[in-house]
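pls design
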């Protein structure tokens, strides 16, 4: 007869509880400092809500009133070299981290006013929340997107749970670059149930990364109670279930939070890997704004009153009174100093409207409207001194034949030898003697520790790559099939594509995403897509589409030198094709926005991508039509070679666009609109567009071929436009 065997998690899982004796371990100066910081957060957010009510905050204000102890307790043990991020409710964490970075040694809030540097931290954060130029992100981030790398605030995210993979990436960078730092991702109970969070926790556990997953469990995701949406409401359990420590604590008690953080940091520094902390707490107000949840009907006044009786400021002040660390005059003095610092920021950022006491924002604090599109991409200065080459720049005796995949593997190996910050991340990249495509062959021979196996979790490891890129690595992310980009679309589109512009520019985002495309192989609709159109929608991405081994080497080198994210589209049909490459040169580059005329002509301009380039050459040879064939090569929204394209159109007056993929994913519709806008007077014929069918490819060989653009379709279109 079967019998039950009790199982338990492989990692510790416990709750930290504190009493008066634990409070007594800390000096009065420590406890007063923590209280004053909680008070600062409280008064700051109260002022933000006042400014919002006055119409001076554009967008939401997600106040953390009631949760001050979690931020102050956690930050009490972190230095500026330790990284944090948060989600949409992060004023308390960011303000505390900013202030801590500016507090001078020996500062005593009972005896000293805030220093100018501390005042400036408050001013810059308030300005950012108000969307103003003096803000830490020049007003582009506002309340939900805040970054200050000098203070260790690597960047918050408004996407629930979207910040968590980034923190794992910060920790990965510290691990690879042998830096002494800990990263902390702050998020709520709602985010704890999000897929990217689980994926990130799993990756951190697999590599034992120095990261703390700090869950502020305030019980409600907007109005939904935690008990409504999960069967296990003890959220710290997520750690032990993945093999790392889980700690619960009272998030209304700053000492309890401090003690939980202390235990977590000791575990990390002993090499045990990540830790999850669940701090039970309560936001006193609604999700956003100054109303209470009870006013909107999803919480009772009795529940709110019960939690307010455990206000973290009251918990701390009661102890300070009992121990005579502060009396009424002392509390009043702290409040006066904190309030005065906040008011100084308000006075700098507002002025009275003429003839009234109504506040308004001075004109000189607004960002210039002319800057709205600045900072989407880098300024290109990283390419100063780069060696740009085309195949024609080499003598025949300097060239040799190489298979596409061999050239790619050699180029990666050479790049990794030259740059120790390059890492490769993806599924199966560490197996099969070079991953599923053979791309990592040389990397595995020379640098196996920098070829990082990832779980089947594209959204998670793409987000990890972004965090790593923001902290000094140059990750190469492999996506096994193009369609899988949609699994990672949140990180690709909401995070990687927007992060530089959103946070105010001035920093690199060096990610390379290799995307394998195999529409011809019979894998069916969910493994056949080319997602170039997805990346093209977001101007923060460059897109390379190499068609020869020579171009692949140069494009990879360019992508790895670029401070922008670059997608490289790898059509599997090319992998075993041979082409000429330099015999002894693997460090040349191909410009980011440079197409190439692969056949000059005068009858029409034939714009082709990927496998349609060699197909176009053959069709033109077979028909004898004098078409000018341009391999577009660079497909990004802001990195398309319009000078070359428009020069050709002015010469031929006719345009034919050839893409292999499904019509709905084709980029040609964008190019058609651009050409008609830029060169309408040069056109003597409608622009023709050859693509695949409406439907995605399916497994049937016959239908698979029918779903893709063919030489027959291209021939018919070419004859039609040439004879018109």
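designed seq:
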């Amino acid at each position: 007869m079967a019998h039950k065997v009790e199982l338990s998690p492989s990692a510790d899982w416990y709750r930290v509880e504190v009493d008066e004796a634990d409070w007594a371990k800390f000096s009065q100066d420590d406890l007063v400092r923590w209280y004053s910081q909680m008070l600062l957060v409280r008064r700051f957010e109260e002022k933000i809500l006042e400014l919002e009510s006055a119409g001076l905050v554009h967008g939401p204000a997600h106040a953390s009133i009631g949760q001050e102890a979690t931020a102050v307790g956690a930050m009490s043990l972190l230095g500026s070299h330790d990284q944090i991020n948060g989600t949409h409710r992060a004023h308390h964490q960011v303000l505390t981290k900013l202030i801590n970075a500016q507090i001078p040694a020996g500062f005593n809030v009972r005896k000293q006013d805030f220093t100018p540097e501390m005042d400036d931290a408050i001013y810059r954060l308030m300005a950012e929340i108000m969307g103003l130029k003096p803000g830490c992100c020049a007003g582009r981030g506002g309340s939900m997107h805040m970054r200050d790398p000098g203070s260790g605030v690597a960047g918050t995210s408004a996407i629930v749970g979207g910040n968590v993979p980034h923190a794992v990436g910060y920790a990965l960078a510290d691990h690879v670059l042998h830096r002494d730092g800990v990263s902390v991702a702050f998020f709520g109970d709602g985010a704890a149930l999000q897929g990217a969070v689980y994926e990130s926790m799993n990756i951190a556990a697999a590599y034992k990364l120095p990261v703390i997953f700090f869950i502020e469990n305030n019980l409600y995701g907007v109005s939904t109670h935690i008990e409504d949406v999960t069967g296990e409401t003890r959220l710290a359990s997520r750690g032990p279930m993945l093999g790392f420590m889980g700690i619960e604590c009272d998030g209304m008690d700053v000492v309890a939070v401090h003690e939980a953080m202390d235990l977590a940091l000791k575990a990390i520094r002993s090499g045990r890997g990540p830790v999850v902390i669940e701090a039970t707490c309560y936001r006193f107000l609604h999700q956003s704004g100054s109303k209470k949840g009870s006013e909107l009907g999803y919480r009772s006044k009795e529940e709110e009153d019960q939690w307010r009786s455990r206000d973290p400021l009251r918990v701390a002040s009661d102890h300070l009174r009992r121990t005579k660390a502060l009396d009424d005059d002392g509390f009043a003095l702290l409040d006066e100093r904190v309030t005065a610092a906040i008011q100084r920021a308000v006075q700098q950022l507002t002025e009275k409207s003429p003839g009234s006491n109504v506040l308004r924002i001075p004109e000189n604090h607004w960002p210039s409207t002319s800057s709205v599109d600045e900072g989407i991409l880098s300024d290109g200065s990283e390419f100063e001194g780069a060696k740009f080459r085309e195949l024609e720049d080499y003598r025949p005796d300097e060239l040799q034949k190489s298979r596409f995949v061999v050239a790619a593997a050699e180029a990666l190996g050479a790049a990794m030898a030259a740059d120790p910050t390059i890492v490769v991340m993806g599924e199966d990249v560490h197996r099969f003697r070079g991953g599923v495509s053979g791309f990592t062959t040389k990397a595995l021979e020379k640098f196996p520790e920098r070829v990082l196996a990832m779980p089947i979790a594209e959204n998670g490891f793409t987000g990890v790559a972004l965090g790593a890129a923001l902290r000094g690595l140059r990750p190469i992310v492999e996506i096994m099939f193009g369609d899988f980009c949609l699994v990672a679309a949140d990180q690709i589109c909401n995070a990687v594509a927007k992060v530089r512009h959103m946070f105010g520019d001035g920093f690199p985002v060096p990610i390379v995403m290799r995307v394998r495309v195999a529409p011809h192989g019979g894998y069916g609709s969910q493994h056949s897509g080319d997602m170039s159109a997805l990346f093209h929608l977001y101007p923060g991405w460059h897109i390379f589409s190499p068609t020869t081994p020579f171009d692949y080497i140069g494009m990879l080198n360019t992508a790895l030198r670029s401070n922008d994210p670059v997608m490289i589209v790898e059509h599997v049909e090319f992998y075993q094709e041979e082409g000429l490459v330099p015999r002894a040169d693997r460090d040349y580059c191909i410009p980011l926005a440079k197409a190439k005329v692969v056949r000059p002509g005068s009858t029409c301009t034939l714009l082709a991508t990927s496998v349609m380039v060699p197909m176009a050459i053959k069709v033109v040879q077979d028909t004898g039509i004098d078409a000018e064939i341009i391999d577009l090569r660079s497909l990004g929204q802001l990195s398309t070679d319009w000078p070359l394209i428009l020069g050709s159109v002015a010469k031929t007056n006719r345009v034919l666009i050839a893409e292999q993929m499904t019509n709905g994913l084709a980029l040609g519709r964008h190019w058609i609109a651009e050409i008609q806008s830029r060169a309408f007077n040069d056109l003597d014929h409608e622009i023709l567009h050859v693509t695949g069918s409406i439907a995605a490819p399916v497994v049937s060989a016959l239908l698979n071929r029918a779903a893709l653009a063919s030489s027959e379709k291209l021939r018919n279109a070419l004859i039609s436009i040439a004879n018109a």
